[in-house]
């Protein structure tokens, strides 16, 4: 898919100043812009066959402050090209098309996530959830909302999870963890700085770490004892992909049901108690 002349020209104008390795990055990006918008810096480096520092140096060389700023520029170009080449349709057809596309994307995200499930990793996660003394969960933005959903879900079976979405609170809570505790980080990109910083602190204190992420080659996985992959992905312009959210919730639901099944009688007793506790909250 051809991108805008302006963006191509910007990269080509720097070609003579790039090193051989940086030119490899430029060539890959120009040929794979639609895929590049979904890649972390680690994944792009691996696909091109260069180091992460080369990718970052390339981004700065052509005028961007860093990789995320570069990826944002590519995303805008891809979105602009898609808009410029879209066919005009009447309003009703446009609505029907949007409904179909959104539904298909959500279903596909669930199917893809189920295929990514690593049973061994899932079992390890359940073992940690049922054995560690204290459980904390970190996430930002939409991933923070997923963490809160997980806390509320697990509360029904007596598994208490602390959730922190503020960067300062994440760091402070992580500093109090020990080898008997569990830290869970949720990040679609696997590159959310505040979440990773908190997990790094937790890890340094001996706590076990579980990560939920779309990207297997990302900073968050380097800190993780258990990696749970989700299929949903998002571009810098989306910032709240429903496919990504649904994928996260599927993994949370699997963990919840597996823990509940392991505890059986106790989980059933607590689900009944928590349900009765809110019976009078509805008309």
Automatic annotation (TrEMBL):
PROSITE patterns: HTH_RPIR, SIS. Gene3D superfamilies: Glucose-6-phosphate isomerase like protein, domain 1 (3.40.50.10490), Winged helix-like DNA-binding domain superfamily/Winged helix DNA-binding domain (1.10.10.10). This is SIS domain-containing protein. InterPro entries: Homeodomain-like_sf, HTH_RpiR, RpiR-like, RpiR-like_SIS, SIS_dom, SIS_dom_sf, WH-like_DNA-bd_sf. Residues 5-81 form the HTH rpiR-type domain. The keyword Transport does not apply. The keyword DNA-binding applies. CDD domains: SIS_RpiR. Residues 125-265 form the SIS domain. GO terms for biological process: carbohydrate derivative metabolic process. One of its GO terms (molecular function) is DNA binding. SUPFAM superfamilies: Homeodomain-like, SIS domain. Keywords: DNA-binding, Transcription, Transcription regulation. It comes from the Bacteria.
